[in-house]
What we know:
Elements: H1 3-33, E1 44-47, E2 53-63, E3 66-71, E4 76-80, H2 86-94, E5 98-109, E6 112-116, E7 122-127, E8 130-131, H3 140-151, E9 155-163, E10 169-175, E11 178-179, H4 180-186, E12 191-192, H5 200-211, H6 225-244, E13 253-256, E14 261-264, E15 276-279, E16 285-286
Parallel strand pairs: 7-10, 14-16
Antiparallel strand pairs: 1-2, 2-3, 3-4, 5-6, 5-9, 6-7, 8-12, 9-10, 10-11, 13-14, 13-15
Helix pairs in contact: 1-6, 4-5
GO molecular function, one term: hydrolase activity
Protein name: TNase-like domain-containing protein
Organism: Bremerella alba
Amino acid sequence: MSIGRKLVILSSQLVVVWVVLALLSAPMALAQAQPDPPLVDSFRPWHDVGGKFLTKSRFAYLDGDRVALWTETGQMLLVPQAQFSDADQRWIADHPVKVLRGKVIFVADGDTLGLLDANKRQHRIRLEGIDAPERGQAFGTKSRQMLNDVVYGKEILVAYDESDPYGRILGHIYLSDRWLNYDQLAHGMAWHYRHFNGDAYLARAQKTAEAQKAGLWRDVSPAPPWRYRLTEKRRREMEEAKNTAEPMQPTRYWLNTSSGVRHNSTCKHYGRTSRGKYCQSDNGKPCDMCGG
């Protein structure tokens, strides 16, 4: 193989390596720039007008003139708003929670489902604070099946604050006395999405499931789904980089990139200069010996 052709192949390989390294370093730098949020107790104590402790609840929302509380025991309590302390009533006003009710019409995976509300509008719900295994991972199918068995066709309540960049509602799902975000973690069917969620209660649920070898924790080396997605993304990008890196195809002409002289395929310098590339008949200036 000529020196010129070797240089072309080597330069193409270096381009691919450079692209791949750039793709690998960008997500890592981004992850380092976004530290995990601190862990906080999501269950807040509530008190009556006299300051007496009533219960602890992880969220509260106004339901007419009453306040709905979901307690540590899994009960949904309805308490007249006027019975709460002034501090608690101010807290309710300062921390509004959006509530959505409807019937589950599909379960996409272990952390995503579809809901049909009373107005026949469909909503895609992403369970806040958890990340279930992908379909290509171990327990991906089991995670989806467990959630599907519990909620499909049922009426659920979704408490949420916002949507994610994909338009999905980021919510906490409640079915009777069950908090399904917590249940998926407790059964080892999802990971606590620690990088985006600082709920200490969810963090403890994962630790307990891990200690008990529940669900995905039975694997010797379970892979977090976000790492699996990143690995798959990198693999696709590497393949794309390889496919789009276009090594220069041999032509009848060779350009000495140092001198700018063009040689044709009959010339002794064709493909043999220390620096050069294949070119077209109108590139550079013609060689005095072969006429380019």
